[in-house]
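pinned: reference chain
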Amino acid sequence: MYTGRNSLEPTLHETLQFHGKSIENEWRFLRVCASPTASQQSLASACAAIRDWDLLLELADEHGVLGLLSKRLTPVQGVPGTFREKLQSRMRTQQLFVLGLTADLFEILDEFGRSSIEAILVKGPIVSLLAYGDPATRNYGDLDLIVRHRQILEATQCMHRLGYEADVPETAIEAGKLPGEYVFKRAGRPQLIELHTEPTFRYYPQPMRIEEMYSRRRVVPLDGRQIPALSVEDEVLLNCIHGGKHFWERLMWIADIALIIARNREISWDQLFRQAEEVGAERMLCVGLQLAKHLLDANLPDDIQHRVLDDQEVQPLCTQIHGWLPTAGLTPPALYERALFRIRMAGGGVTGAAYLSRLSLAPTEEDWVEGEEHKRSWVWDAVRRPFRLFRKYGKKG
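pinned: its structure tokens
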């Protein structure tokens, strides 16, 4: 029976603080809720230890697991009615938001289809379907679509025709400038659409093999339509890389991995590890799997567990992540810790140093010289980037 404790916890649980309040019980309860193997007895036991329900709601919101919490609490006794009402209100808002995003998705796919642009939906609703069987359970605030880089200008023009405003102007695309993602929004609406191409996935240690991913794509049913999606293996790998990109600061990302594994027994582990090796992301994959195993008791096949732990750096990295994870980014790693983490996650040594250098010097739209977005001034943009990163993260450590 899963209780929410593991070998990483004894040195940490006494000091967990969130806005000055102890969150030992709340953190343990969220982990029990996120575990695919948790029993009703363990849920009830962890629930009985909660004293500050508003704190639990705030912590769950920060970790992006409100939908998961709502699902797991449905049969649990002893939950205050006011808490259930607040949680249900949040979920109604999320469901309405998702309905709006789904309508936007269908409209965009139709417009792309008229221009022969093949797009693939990733993260967000796809992960919610894979992990929870419902596109509205998981919290997300935007839609993420992959398109081939050679079609990004056409895709941007399609978005303009649909009434979206672009953060990246067409002149910048024509000049060959590469942002972190191509963000679109409509005036007066909170929903965001993000288009990604193979160069914008810069957190892949080696270039994303876009055509191979397209060849493995499949379709999944979403509100009566067949939607193009990545293979399960590609989606798991992408989400492990994404979690590493954000230092695994949200329980939601670990829960995604644990529950995808639990609900999708058809995963080809050999294929998953082969794809990770091809892009230099084996350690990133192993860290994601190990976090799911040790924090949420995810069931990994014995041979896969041995394969994960063959890398001696995986367990220390997971211990480091668990130090900042409970507070959901409130106590992020310092700048030097971030740098070392990047190096180690990419394999260490020369490979890791090269990865860090690329991330530190490859500019995004935040680094572009103002007023020069239409020019290919890569050198000046690259020079600006380390200084911006230091201003953003240097004071935290």
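why pinned: The longest strand covers residues 142-146. The radius of gyration is 21 Å.
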